[in-house]
Design a protein that fits this description.
With 109 residues, the chain is α+β, with helices and mostly antiparallel strands. It has one domain: Alpha-Beta Plaits. 35% of the residues lie in helices and 28% in strands. The protein contains four helices and five strands; from the N terminus they run E-H-H-E-E-H-H-E-E. The protein is globular and about 40 Å long. 6% of the residues are buried.
Length: 109
């Protein structure tokens, strides 16, 4: 199992829309997340800066392949078409990133 985290900004005028969407996340999208070996997925919001922090545990063996499968899923792409316009990526993100991946610096059980 690998713990993974990411962050992105949420546009100030899109906070309520983003919260509303996630209060009724689509079952097909949730099923795809699980099928891609992602468990314990959570998203947190830091206000007033409106920074989203996502955390999950990856239980697969090929994250790139699972990510590609998720990105190829029509229902997930439809979901992202609603959620992505709410987000503002960091200017410092790596090439190809939307959400910025974070490095784990500490963990204890």
């Amino acid at each position: 199992m690998q713990r993974m985290a990411m962050c992105i900004r949420l546009k100030d005028d899109k906070v309520e829309e983003y919260l509303r969407l996630h209060a009724a996340a689509w079952p097909e999208v949730l099923a795809r997340i699980a099928a891609c070996n992602i468990h314990n997925y959570s998203i947190y919001l830091k206000r007033p800066e409106n920074i989203l922090f996502g955390y999950w545990e990856y239980h697969g063996s090929d994250f790139a392949a699972d990510s590609a499968a998720m990105a190829a899923d029509a229902k997930t792409r439809e979901w992202w078409a609603l959620t992505d316009p709410c987000q503002q990526p960091f200017e410092t993100r790596k090439e190809g990133e939307w959400w910025s991946m974070l490095d784990e610096v500490f963990h204890t059980d």
